[in-house]
Amino acid sequence: MLAFADAVDRLNQRVANVVRWLALTMVLVQFCIVIGRYVFGYNSIAAQESVLYMHATLFMLGAGYTLLVDKHVRVDVFYAKLTERNRRRIDIFGHLFLLLPSMTVLLYWSWPSVRNSWKILEGPMSVGGIEAVFLLKSLIPAFCCLIILQSLSLLIRLLVQGAKS
């Protein structure tokens, strides 16, 4: 089981190593859009949409890594004051009864929309935009899968850690 957890961790690490460059690329593209518009009077809907696509990709595919390194949003009002054992219990509960079910439901309910988008190769959101909304929608199941896998990895580690103590 730990080999599975290690493989999932490596997967999310590799995905993060790729998508992190989108942050820099997004800034550069946005800079070019602003210069193009205000200096040269040129505007590109596709360039503007590319920033949206990069932003969505960065956050949707980087979420698994964020969970891996424990930088996700957490309300630490009580959690920080708890013992390690009680934190582990809360984490196990959160993975089993909150995170995994919610990601499963999101995956289930979004899949028909993603499937239909691929079926028609859904085009741009705006005239002159990027003709790949189906790719943008595909980020939803990818996000769910990466989060589910990372949640399982963390759950395995929490259970192994609990068994040792």
TrEMBL record:
Transmembrane domains' residue ranges: 21-40, 52-69, 90-111
Family designation: Belongs to the TRAP transporter small permease family.
KW Transmembrane (keyword) present: yes
Name of encoding gene: dctQ5
Locations listed in the record: Cell inner membrane
Subunit structure: The complex comprises the extracytoplasmic solute receptor protein and the two transmembrane proteins.
Name of the protein: TRAP transporter small permease protein
A Pfam entry, by short name: DctQ
Organism of provenance: Roseobacter litoralis (strain ATCC 49566 / DSM 6996 / JCM 21268 / NBRC 15278 / OCh 149)
Role according to the record: Part of the tripartite ATP-independent periplasmic (TRAP) transport system.
Span of domain Tripartite ATP-independent periplasmic transporters DctQ component: 26-159
Superkingdom of source: Bacteria
Keywords in alphabetical order: Cell inner membrane, Cell membrane, Membrane, Transmembrane, Transmembrane helix, Transport
GO cellular component terms, A-Z: plasma membrane
Membrane topology per record: Multi-pass membrane protein
InterPro entries: DctQ, TRAP_DctQ
Keyword Cell inner membrane: yes
GO molecular function: transmembrane transporter activity
